[in-house]
Design brief:
This protein has helices at 5-33, 44-55, 59-75, 80-100, 106-111. The protein has one domain (5-111). It starts with a helix and ends with a helix. By secondary structure, the protein is mainly alpha-helical. The protein has 5 helices and no strands.
Length: 112
């Protein structure tokens, strides 16, 4: 069977979607189980921002749940659009946080 350009584009989209989905699932699970270490040299503004987020007890579990659900939905081609809608507010928040609080991570946040 000869593969066309469209077939290669679909394969690339599938691989990128799986990587994004796994990244989101990992971030969502970390919000619940805290298994990734926190870097000791975080900027002071980012530490204050994190503490403010922790003050609202339901916020981090909500973001983690949205990341989990969005990541799982993005893994499957039939549910990618719904997954993108679920994860969109979280991604906007991440992008705004990097613009205003921690600009050193803005390039990675914009790529994702």
């Amino acid at each position: 069977m000869i593969k066309t350009k469209n077939d290669y584009e679909k394969e690339i989209l599938n691989v990128l979607s799986i990587l994004l989905g796994l990244l989101l699932i990992n971030g969502g699970l970390d919000k619940f189980f805290h298994y990734m270490p926190i870097p000791p040299d975080l900027p002071e503004a980012l530490v204050k921002d994190n503490l403010a987020f922790m003050e609202i007890a339901w916020l981090m579990p909500l973001v983690g749940f949205a990341e989990l659900v969005g990541g799982i939905l993005i893994l499957f081609p039939l549910t990618r659009a719904l997954g993108a809608l679920v994860i969109f507010p979280v991604m906007v928040g991440i992008l705004l946080r990097h613009i205003f609080v921690a600009p050193e991570g803005l390039i990675i946040a914009a790529i994702i």
